[in-house]
Amino acid sequence: MIELRSLTYSYGLGAPIFQDYNWKVARGEAWAVLGPSGCGKTTLLYLLAGLRRPSVGEVLVDGDPLTRPRPQTGLILQDYGLLPWATVRQNAELGLQVRSFYGPDGKHVPQDYRTDTLVDPWLERLGLSSLGDKYPGQISGGQRQRTAIARTLALNPDLLLMDEPFSSLDAPTRESLQNLTLELQAEQGLTLVIVTHAIEEAAILGRKILLLSYPPNTHSAVFENPGAGQAGYRDSIEYLHLCRELRACMGKEPESHT
Amino acid sequence: MRRRDLLIAVVALLVLWQLASLLVNQAILPSPIIVGRVFVQELRSDLLGHFLVSLWRVIASTLLAIALAAPAGLVLGQYRWLNNLFSPLIYLIYPVPKVVFVPIVLLFFGLGDTPKIVIIFLILFFQILVLVRDQAVNLRPELIQSVCSLGAGRRAIFRFVYLPASLPAILTALRQSVGTAVAVLYIAELYATQKGLGYYIYLNGSTLLNYPAMYAGIVAMSVLGLGLYFTVDWLERRICPWQFAH
Q1: Chain B contact for A233, CB < 8 A?
Q2: A90 in reach of chain B (CB within 8 A)
Q3: I want to staple B215 with a disulfide (CB 3.0 to 4.6 A). Which of A104, A250, B35, B226 is the partner?
Q4: B89 touches chain A (CB under 8 A)
């Protein structure tokens, strides 16, 4: 579904973060992108989102070069993604409003967009129905992130990109939202790419894990993690082994594990 | 603030005024009872007309300032190179007390409403411009990007992010400068006009020596300032309820 082909990216005239970099993501896969701060994780996600353009090479989505954000891609950021002046309901409806604003033009909005799409099933699914009239400043971090998820999923995306989505949350909330993400990924058949600096989170959410190192990234280690998403995986021995392995590799020079 | 407390404060002020007028015991400080009676009488003759002229001048200049400063602030806030170009100019002009321009504006715009509207416009324009610009500049890039990711292009970003973000800035600017605007209106109405509360106060105080009427004019001017302040307050609660939700 996604292909990075000989991609080079640098900020301005600085040293490249990615150099002649290749990567492929198949439809329906769940990837975690792991790496230390400053390794280019967020940059990679923004490249996939179409919010940044590669300096050299290309990002292909379904075979087409990505030149602008694509309407079927959902992006969820760590925080600050909600409009502070809009209620939970209005925030969740924002994507739909943007779609109605443009109409199904095929550029900002998919051509098959139905204007009667409702956000209520998503508010209900994410346990936000009773908070519809609250403002982001009045609800907890976990509820804010649920709102962002509702807003994104209401647009019926096929690709979900998440940038450190749960890192500012407390542990129980984080765990429950991780489980929710896995459920939704399976239920909606989403292709998921989640960026994180937390080894445990990568091992829970990524059935494949891409380990970035300090720039320039030319090729990266990929870890297979087929058990992710299964019940009880958090307590399994495979999970603990993988975490140990990832911890040992993080920050080292890349080598092939596939 | 509760209504009852506000009412008590009004009564306390009136009592203080009454006591002061008893102590001073001169024509230059009539009691609030006399002033109240004259206020009602004058309202029936020509005070209301002067009040409405002053009100019109403030409203017209406020609307004009919003209409020009808010879009300008939004544009400056969105384009860094434009902001870099204009910010030294704004930096220099912004802190200058605009009241010193009164004589110049009078020279250029002569008699009537125009110079008064222009001078209040100048005060409000820079206040709104700076606050809206800063609001737009300070919108977090994450917020813009996440709205972009919902498919929003420049037009939708403007409609769903910049426009609603500028409303509280406009209202804050009005709240901060409406008092100054009325004060400067008073100064401006001392010259080259025969209408407006400033003229009315000056005429009764210095020419006719009708002190109760002068005080009635001062009360009317206070009502104008307070009324505008309360209106901004009310609008803020109506338009920006999220700022008051905890």
Answers
A1: no
A2: no
A3: B35
A4: no
- State the Cα–Cα distance between residues A166 and B170, nearest whole angstrom: 35
pLDDT in tens, A41-54: 888 898 898 888 88
Which of B73, B77, B107 minimizes the C-alpha distance to B191? B107
Residue A251 — pLDDT band, cuts 50, 70, 90? low
C-alpha to C-alpha distance for A197 and A179, rounded to whole angstroms? 18
Annotate A98-119 with b (16+ C-beta within 10 A) or e (fewer). Answer: bbebbebeeebbbeebeeebeb
State pTM to two decimals.
0.77
d(CA A161, CA B135): 28
β partners of residue A210: A33, A222
Task: Tell me: pLDDT of B239 over 80.
Answer: yes
Q: Which amino acid is at A25?
A: V
Which one of B146, B153, B168 has the shortest CB-CB distance to A75?
Answer: B146
Q: Is the pLDDT of residue B67 over 70?
A: yes
Cα–Cα dist A246/A198, whole Å: 10
Domains (ranges, CATH) in chain A?
1-72+160-258 (3.40.50.300), 81-156 (no CATH)
Q: Tell if the CB–CB gap between B240 and A85 is shorter than 8 Å.
A: yes
Could you tell me what percentage of chain A is helix, strand and coil, using 3-state DSSP and rounding each to the nearest 5? Answer: 35, 20, 45
ipTM for the predicted complex: 0.77
Q: Does B3 touch chain A (CB under 8 A)?
A: no
Q: Is the dihedral of CA A135, A137, A139, A140 positive or negative?
A: positive
**What is the model's pLDDT at position A207?**
87
Taking the CA atoms of A197, A199, A204 and A210 in sequence, report the sign of the dihedral they define.
Answer: positive
Cβ distance of B242 and A77 shorter than 8 Å:
no
pLDDT digits (tens, 9 = 90+) for A83-127: 989 999 999 999 888 888 888 777 777 777 777 778 888 898 888
Residue B33: pLDDT over 90? yes
Which CATH superfamily, name and number, covers B45-243? MetI-like (1.10.3720.10)
